[in-house]
Amino acid sequence: MNFVYPQANLIAGVDEVGRGPLVGAVVTAAVILDPARPITGLMDSKKLTEKRREALYLEITEKALCWSLGRAEPEEIDRINILHATMLAMQRAVEGLAIQPDYVLIDGNRCPVLSMSAQAVVKGDSLVAEISAASILAKVTRDREMAELDKQFPEYGFAKHKGYPTALHLEKLSLLGATEHHRKSFAPVKRALAIG
Description:
- This protein has 196 residues and is an alpha/beta fold.
- It has one domain (11-152): Ribonuclease H-like superfamily/Ribonuclease H (Nucleotidyltransferase, domain 5), CATH 3.30.420.
- Helices cover 43% and strands 16% of the residues.
- The longest helix has 24 residues, at 129-152.
- It starts with 10 loop residues before the first strand and ends with a helix.
């Protein structure tokens, strides 16, 4: 990882999962790793197999100095838009940390408003171990939620596509309409609800 870390003792990494899906919450995580308990194999969660992500999730939650999840629900996404909802969920993740970090590194190109210094890092989930760890926690959490939603609404295939607008999801949406978990402000859902 070729990233020059800022001079700070406690660094939290933050990432989100679920900006693109049509259903469910946007989930964020904040992680402060313990330098005394290194974790091998941290990388962007999307580049890992599901089995590897699950194993790393357990290791991160066990070894990190502290970690926290944040989220914004579909109603909030519809009310304030996905970008603002993502920033809100990131704030919630950082505020939920049991230890306050000195500095926060955020995946992407913008930072939420926080009470401590922060820096956005483009492709941070591939460059910064703390952000990689956060991306894994957020993805595993959201994928588990989609698996649960799949049990409630098996006909939509949420376990397969995780709520993203795949051909299958769009087809089911037009046939079956939207569930209460769908984001009503997103165009395909709007069309399915015929309110657009």
